[in-house]
Amino acid sequence: MNLLTIQDLSVGYDSVAVVEGLNFSVDEGDYLCIVGENGSGKTTLMKTLLHLQEPLRGQILTGGGLKKNEIGYLPQQTIVQKDFPASVREIVLSGCQGRCGLRPFYNKEEKKLADKNMERMGITPLKNRCYRDLSGGQQQRVLLARALCATQKILLLDEPVSGLDPKVTSEMYSLIEGLNREGITIIMISHDIASSVRYASHILHIGDTVFYGTRDAYLKSDIGRFFLAQQKGGEA
User: Fold this and answer.
1) What is the pTM of this model?
2) Longest dimension (CA), the chain
């Protein structure tokens, strides 16, 4: 079932396009990785998909009954956010705000949902800890649990492993892969093209050249081979 259809989409700021003419779709159960060089417009595209900013041109169509407030989002963390003085449970619960409507409190079902997602992310023992006292990996698990409180359908993740050590990075990728296997659609921005092609079902590569297709098609494409070789060369 189709969740998102992007038609002739151009995104940017102050009427200046960063990326133009995008056409792709996201089906239920897909794992789409958005890759490209720094400054290519990946985060701008994600903010536009989330309706945090308006597209310059084109359309973003939703299907499968998906509503704007049913999209879970894990943004890149800022230094201020990492130092946020709230408990783990309070932060996870805040992911239910879209469900509350005009209610100024969380109901029993929302509290149960927060507890369930803390259990899913293995952070229940941390629920009373202050968020700013946690490690980077623990903080990302908290934010992932928060995002899951907003959706049962689709998660948008902006560089979810940025700044994490290799062991914690591997654990985070495994968590995300597990959520996808449970049926949650993933759209993830990543600078790590090698890991993207390991986990993704589809790749959107944006920049001077735009590619959208399956992981296997990307591996066989000129742009895919070039950037994978370039990244491996940079790590050598």
Assistant:
1) 0.90
2) 54
